[in-house]
Amino acid sequence: MSLFTVFIVISIVLSLIFVLILGRLLTARQKESKKLWETKEKLRRTEARLGVMLEQLPAVVWTTDSELRFSSSVGAGLANLGLKPGEAVGRTLYDFFGTNDKSFPAIAAHLEALKGQEVGFEQDWGGYRYRVVVEPLRDAEGLVVGTLGVALDVTDLVVSEQALKMSQARYQDFLAQTSEGIWRIELAQPVSIEASEEEQIDHLYRFGSLAECSDAFAKMFGLTSASVLVDARLDEIFPRSDADNVEHLRTFIRRDYRLADAESSEVDDRGRRQYFINSLTGITEDGHLLRIWGTRRDVTAHKESDRALKTSEEKYRELFEVSQDTIFISTPDGRMIDINPAGLRLLGYDNKKDLLNVDVGKDLYADPDKRDQVVEMLNKHGGCRDFELRLKRRDGSEIVVQETASVVRNSEHEVIAYRGMLRDVSRQRQLEEQLQGAQRMEAVGRLAGGVAHDFNNLLTVINGRADLLGTLVEPGSPLVHEVDEIKQAGKQAAALTRQLLILSRRQVGSPNALNLNRVIEAVENLLRRSIGEQIELITSLDIHLPNICADESQIEQVLLNLALNARDAMTDGGTLRIETAKVEVNDSSTIQAPESKDGPWVVLRVKDTGVGIDPSVRDQIFEPFVTTKEASQGTGLGLSTVYGVVKQCNGHIRVKSKQGRGSIFEIFLPAIDQPVAETAQRAEPSELPGGNETILLVEDEAAVRSLLRRFLDSQGYRVVEASEGEAAIVEAESFNGGFDLLLTDLVMPGMGGFELARRLEAQRPELKVIFMSGYSEEAVRGSDTEPVMDSTNFLQKPFSTDLLARLLRAVLDSD
After folding, report:
1. Which residue, 75, 87, 245, 588, could crosslink 60 as a Cys pair with Cβ 3.0–4.6 Å?
2. Whose CA is closest to 415, among 452, 374, 444?
3. What's the CA gap between 799 and 808, in Å, rounded?
């Protein structure tokens, strides 16, 4: 084969090879172009999806160049900033944030990213919270050519985190502050709810431990903080050895893992028993018990309060039952709800049932209108204190009570009841009335005593002048009768002043042992003549009557005054009965004598069948000058005299009377164990004795002084007179010679008789003294430091000249 052919063959082969290679190259190029297109398409689709995702993502993604100028900005978060995608491109960060301060957090982070550092921070933009990450943007050679930033909107997340923190804080604060014991037991291994009760209880004690609790729960165990108790085993908190704890768990399981208000008690480290109320709630999942929540409330104080309340109620009921004051509860419409035994006794009812059926206003109030007044006061003021009113007992008798009460209201503030106390003050009011009567008598008595004193001075003059006049009148002269009339009038006046002195208790008399029966028998005829024939007098005297201590003449005056009072009440005739009796007063006695002390008493009863005493004057009948008679028929001193005598004898008097049915006067006098003394009669000499001694006469009443001087002169005595004590001292000092006797009045202006006698006796120890006064000896007796005065040297005005003459000689002649 020629060379050319070879060349041609070789050329053809080479051409075929070139074509083959070129075909393969074209095929490979086509494949690469297709792959490149597919890659670009895939990248485009990826970029599109990424763009859509970025546009929907609540974030902002941006890039900047090395001058911090935005080169891109995408993301749904731009809308929250009021921007559109790409709107920030071309602006620098300095323009965007409006500051050139490189320490501004966002600018500082981008500057750090340009240095190759990744920086994360949080930033508030446009009212939203963003969590930002800025990192370097590098080229293919790894050089930093800008920054890439991503900002995620975490506003909702931050709010949720803050809410969670606040919730956790509140929960922890609740645990710390609550007074309830709150706790949570976690099981290291859940227990199947299908297991038996014993298996579950064993599992709880084996795997249960305290995960958390309140401080209050820890304090119930004597611990100061909940942290000390955390991780404690269940058996350390609720010991299995306590049967109550196991029983509570058993009940908890049986009741579908719920237990409410289970009571338990424990003794603390100081030996005090504490009481608790427990509640449990179990948390189950997939048929297993995971944990237990529980609460425990300390009810020790409540228990103690209940116990104290029960004790208080028992004490109140005991007080209610045994109180001597009436305790009651009544309704606003006037019905009793309850009343204690003292109330039954007070109102005279035998059983409570009868009293609870009464109408309070109609059946118990003496004046039904008074209850309306009480109710109005209670409703207006909410209560009353010591309000006085009169109530009716079951037998119709009335009592005086003081009511202290208050209203009981319901939740709507409506009055539903009245409760209160009643105190019987009937006896107290009676005593007050007696005291007021005694005070009135005392006041009038002082007045009567003063009047009697002055009147006795006048009577001394009248009677003394009559005695002197009698010595000057010849026997058989018509003037003898006139003088006798004057003397008789003087005696009657003296009797009247004695009644006044008895009333004032300044006429004590001479009390001795007396037999009241003998006194009545001695004056019985006088009484019959005094009351008249139309009135029958009947006496009924106790033959075993003990003696009394009194002045006989005063007792006679009492009998006469009571008889005359009865006569005036029986103008058409009737019966006057005088009775005596002995009574014994003690706790078991039936005699109604409330003023009488325990012991024997003598009772004098004077009964008449007269007209009775008008109730309007019954309380004043013992007051002086109170009378129902005509002005010309009496003085009104009769019963006052009776009252004065009885009080002087340490007795008391009371009256029972009904108009048209007569009156009964009862006089109670203390009995004595002393015999009656027999008195001998003495004959008085007919001639008046005289003398020649010197007498200092001291009397403030000029008329009395003149009378006494004339009489003493007529009897031969030398007389020096003075009108009062100071003048007598002057006369004594200036008189030449001594005085044998001082005759002085006791009650004078300035210096009285006692003081005068004391001063003169200090200068003249041998001086004899005679005192005189319009008051009785006992009423004017001095103290132990005063000169001696008794019946042997005392003259009570009015006195006769005969008595004066004899007493003068007796004193002057005494050693």
Report:
1. 75
2. 374
3. 13
Q: Give pTM, 2 decimals.
A: 0.36
Q: Residue 510's CB: how many other CB atoms inside 10 A?
A: 13
CA distance 254 to 200: 11
Residue 716 CA to residue 255 CA, distance in Å, equals 131
User: Which pLDDT belongs to residue 604?
Assistant: 94
User: Cα separation of 421 and 339, whole Å?
Assistant: 10
d(CA 506, CA 265): 82
Tens of pLDDT, residues 65-124? 988 898 888 877 676 666 777 788 888 888 888 888 888 888 888 898 888 899 888 877
In the structure encoding, which two tokens stand for residue 543, read together? 């033959």
The number of angstroms, rounded, from the C-alpha of 580 to the middle of its chain's C-alpha atoms is 51
Please report which confidence band the pLDDT of residue 448 belongs to, taking 50, 70 and 90 as the band edges.
Answer: low
8-56: per-residue pLDDT in tens? 666 676 667 666 766 676 676 677 666 667 655 665 564 555 555 555 5
CA 211 to chain centre: 54
CB under 8 Å to 222, separation ≥6 — which residues? 268, 269
d(CA 375, CA 396): 23
How far is the first Cα of the chain from the last one, in angstroms, to the nearest whole number?
Answer: 222
Cα distance between residue 405 and residue 329, in whole Å: 9
E strand or H helix that includes residue 565: helix 552-569
Percentages helix, strand, coil for the chain (3-state, rounded to 5) are 45, 25, 30
How far, in whole angstroms, is CA 769 from its chain's centroid? Answer: 64
Instruction: Give the E-state strand segments of 752-803 in sequence order.
Output: 768-773, 794-796
Q: From its phi and psi, is residue 409 left (phi > 0), alpha (psi between -120 and 50) or beta?
A: beta
Count, in order, helices (H) and strands (E) of the chain.
Answer: 22, 27
Per DSSP, 68 falls in state -
